[in-house]
What does this fold into?
Amino acid sequence: MNRNHPTQTDPGNTVPLWIDNKEYTSSITFPVTNADSGRTVHEAYSATPAIAVKAVESAQRAFLSWRNTKPWDRRQLLLKAADYLRERRQEVADLILLETPVPTLMIEMVNIDNSIALLEELAGTISLATSGVIPHTRDNNTIALVVKEPYGVHLGIAPWNASLFLAVRAVLTPIACGNTAILKASEISPKIHNFIGRMLTEVGFPPGVLNVIQHRREDAPQVIEAMIAHPAVKKVNFTGSTAVGKIVAGMAARHCKPTLMELGGKAPMIVCKDADLDQAAQAAIVGAYLHHGQICMSTDTVIAHESIAQELTEKMASISATWPMTSAVSEAGAAKTEILVQDALARGASLALSFPQTNASSEVAIGASVNLKVTPTKLRPSILTGVTPEMKLYHEECFGPTVSVLTFQTEDEAITLANESAYGLSSSIFSRNILRALKLARQIDAGAVHINSMTVHDEPQLPHGGMKSSGWGRFGVPWGLDEFLQLKTITMTSNDLVV
It folds into this structure.
């Protein structure tokens, strides 16, 4: 099926809120527009702070009984949800594409396959992950138990760029551990997020275990604060930009609530002089351009040994010439990336090009300004050289189809360049010498280092999270389950226990 444009429009259908396994409406709506087509595909009801509180109260009521369900009961429901996704694969794909311009790989593998895999991993691991231990005690007449218990109501704030998978991860992981959850849906993709609430209802999850609300962008501060401030909300997880993550973390800190943050990135890729350059060039371009560069793990910087940098850049440019044009999710997102590129060019960077659309030469002169926009939401992919610390692009996440090529002479210099960024989510190294690559990997400040593969790499059974300004805490099974469980120590003292 051709998935370059939405397969349907749905202007008459307003996406409801989802509370207590039922549709819930409000007096406020907002339009949902697909950036690629420019069409308003539907409206969505917008939550108010009062409605957000209702969602929290519903989740708190449900928690009183859900916390006591057995792991095997939860396992069966999780497996039913996985089967539900399999059976409705085409429906899910159409919903994702209706709201957001997404390439097929992102729909099929990243969203649908990963969501099914995560549900099955949770189902297979939950019994052991929620088990406690009996540690030693000093006194013969005392026994200690350390048990794992759910927190309570969990607020999951999910983005639009992998709209199904990241939302499933945000709420089904805490739910599997015995928490209840509220999904704060993205205003860009509310219908696919609403689908998750309907899915859990249809497979048998009780009312209130998952509530789903969305709101207008301008109402975010009040609605989110109302939920975080509520005493029933015990923890918050957020996936999104570092700038917004700091705001959410600040709100949570004011109310003494713990958080799990998976934030932005500026992933470096080190290419050693012994690397397979064809493999490295392919990984750099796919890692930088996939989904219009709108992935937190996207390759922002290639750090190449100076002896192979020119050849690598030429190979990257050749691949770039045939890269299919994709769309950003908004005009503002595309504009931000273009500003970063133009700023770098104005300050002395050069742009290696391979654009059949413009009949341009293979390289744009230093200081030149180029027109990257094909449409307000589509940017021509770009490769920059000569990027320096004086340029904004050197430091900021570009979140668009742009990659910079830096050079190094020594391995120490490569590590310094990789670690200069404020971010630390993902990275990669290309070398035929695996032991050398492993040594370098141990020195990179990032949550993940992928040797001889691209920086965009996440699997449900691997820990996922960042360092520095890329956040804290981990998702992934079983690694991230302890993020959603708290320890309780119980001691029992009795002379009857003395042997």
In short: The CA atoms of residues 54 and 381 lie 45 Å apart. Residues 1-11, 354-362 have pLDDT under 50 and may be disordered. The longest strand covers residues 142-150. The two ends are 72 Å apart (CA to CA).
